[in-house]
Design brief:
mainly alpha
Length: 410
Amino acid sequence: MEKTEKDSANTVDEPKVNYRGIKAMPFVIGNETFEKLGTTGTSNNLLVYLTTVFNMKSITATNLVNVFNGTCNFATLIGAFLSYTYFGRYNTLGFASISSLLGMVLLALTAAVTKLHPPACDSSESGTCPGPTPWQMAFLLSGLGLMVVGASGIRPCNLAFGADQFNPETESGKRGISSFFNWYYFTFTFAMMVSFTVIVYVQSDVSWAWGLAIPAFMMFLSCTAFFIGTGIYVKVKPEGSPITSVIQVIVAAVRKRLLKQPEQPWISLFNHIPISSINSKLSYSDQFRFLNKAAILTPEDKISLDGSAANPWKLCSLQKVEEIKCLIRVVPIWAAGIIYNVAMVQQQTYVVFQVLQSNRRLGNTGFNIPAASFGIFSMIGLTIWIPIYDRIIVPCLQRYTKKEGGITLL
């Protein structure tokens, strides 16, 4: 898209961003690697910890773990809102990392200090094991609560913050972003493998105190790596909440509900795209046409000097409308994913309880595979399945469907 003279003037006024992509990568990747080692190392064996050290009943421990995981996932909505609206990704990540570290330290203390957990219980005395006292439970929940706060800031910001370090307008920057995503998922897989094997073994067979102290130390290294790179990070300022944009489009469309749809909406609708925007330009789509009315330009609408709408609650750009349409299209996919995740959650609870009651001895040796380590078998199965799908199934499907990927993403 050609820039006007006004756009060029605005570009000159904007400070030049000094992208340090490759130089920032070691700190960003180091931060995320240690963070995942700490987080997964603490949460993967949490169910066993609650039932064996805190003497909780199976149903109580399961509910607590599910509430903890569910709250971590739901809190990311709040964390994303605060990050994009008020604090920015750097400040949010820094605060969340420290919160996670404190939460892991408290959790490690519950294992290391005998007064912070119930006395050990002989398995032969089933049903008579003393449970945690109220203040022991409060200390435990405080640690889990701090970890929830940490997850609410880290999960929605770490990927975006890493991508911020590269210039999306250059080929080298685009390659850097792609490389960063590859490293991100590699470190995630690496952290899961180490957590399911080494850390879980230390927790179950050596010492819970050491097993929970190791993830806390990993989180400390994560914070250290993050703050060391402070001077070279690109810190994107908060641009407002995406939720606000959704509400603005709906409000503007309702206000203009009596207006007629234009005959050529892709030409006549208001379509201002900020120069600083790194989002891909979305073409006009004919779905959810009611929302198009939010971009109808009327004589009452005022335009700012930079070309944007003076009142976004009365006039929205076509680009913003199309972004909301994309969000609506994702809702059915998101809803279908709920069923999938219901099954996935069982691997962290029901499967672990089944394994605890099974013979976990490895061959004729005296080594028992930790119950939480059985989650690694799903990862091994996925590792075996992906090459089979990519090299055998996809080529066969391509012959019938004539599609590049064999089948569509849906």
